[in-house]
């Protein structure tokens, strides 16, 4: 029987909102809300936080959240998850962003089911359809181009695909990924290509190295907290 673990990568040094994982919502740190949402999933056996910061570690201990320490050299959240999972016994690993306190548990379950007992898939990645026109031009929202059989072809912060003949369907990558343990441990060893370096979208590393990234449509957008305004907005909903 396979074991599925969710890891929430958290770093203190956020350029737009320093100390982001520890920002309080309803009197509790942001990462704690992500953790409790993940605990509602049917497909997860364990949930834990991975961090390189002692303040986040101490907060996890205080609130009874399992936590593992990683180095400060991790380039991306997925690299941090890959480092954390080395000493964990599991078959499937889910990378859940630590700044999405209202993440939908069913979305997490869907990306797990997309890779569970499947062959030839390096990872799965959640997406939703973009309906808000302003999101299309927003560089903080990563757009995905997907093949007819749901494989990721390209990600960009620019509006893609280009609407030359007719309005296309725009899809938003949510930053919710599932790997097998084997493929996750391969991820940091893959060469970082020029497109990933330009776009700063870590899932491009899978595509640029010729592996299959399966896209999974989910019903609900999650609100990512990147700025103080985002935090105030999420607080207004949750509190």
Description:
The chain is of the alpha/beta class. The protein has one domain: Alpha-Beta Complex (Spore Coat Polysaccharide Biosynthesis Protein SpsA, Chain A). The protein has helices spanning 30-38, 54-62, 77-84, 105-115, 133-137, 181-186, 194-199, 204-208, 228-238, and strands at residues 4-10, 24-25, 28-29, 46-51, 67-69, 92-95, 123-129, 143-146, 152-156, 171-180, 213-217. Strands 1, 4, 5, 6, 7, 8, 9, 10 and 11 form a 9-stranded mixed β-sheet that branches. β2 and β3 form a beta hairpin. The longest helix has 11 residues, at 105-115. The mean pLDDT is 94.
Distance between the termini: 40 Å
The sequence of SSEs as H and E is EEEHEHEHEHEHEEEHHHEH
The domain tally reads 1
Question: Overall mean pLDDT score?
Answer: 94
Using DSSP, what is the number of strands? 11
Helix residue percentage: 25-40%
CA radius of gyration: 17 Å
């Amino acid at each position: 029987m396979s074991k599925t673990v969710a890891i929430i990568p958290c770093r203190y040094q956020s350029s737009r909102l320093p100390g982001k994982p520890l920002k309080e919502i309803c009197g509790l740190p942001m990462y704690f809300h992500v953790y409790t949402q993940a605990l509602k999933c049917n497909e997860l056996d364990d949930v834990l936080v991975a961090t390189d910061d002692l303040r986040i570690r101490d907060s996890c201990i205080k609130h009874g959240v399992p936590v593992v320490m990683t180095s400060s050299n991790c380039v991306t959240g997925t690299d941090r998850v890959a480092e954390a999972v080395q000493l964990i016994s599991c078959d499937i690993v889910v990378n859940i962003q630590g700044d999405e306190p209202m993440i939908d548990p069913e979305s997490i379950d869907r990306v797990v089911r997309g890779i569970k007992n499947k062959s030839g898939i390096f990872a799965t990645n959640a997406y939703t359809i973009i309906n808000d026109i302003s999101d299309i031009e927003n560089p903080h929202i990563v757009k995905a181009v997907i093949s007819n059989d749901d494989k990721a072809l390209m990600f960009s912060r620019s509006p893609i695909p280009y609407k030359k003949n007719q309005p296309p369907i725009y899809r938003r990558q949510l930053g919710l990924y599932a790997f097998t343990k084997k493929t996750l441990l391969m991820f940091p060893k893959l060469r970082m290509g020029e497109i990933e370096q330009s776009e700063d979208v870590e899932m491009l590393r899978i595509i640029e190295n010729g592996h299959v990234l399966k896209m999974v449509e989910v019903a609900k957008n999650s609100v990512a907290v990147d700025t103080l305004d985002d935090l105030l907005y999420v607080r207004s909903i949750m509190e």
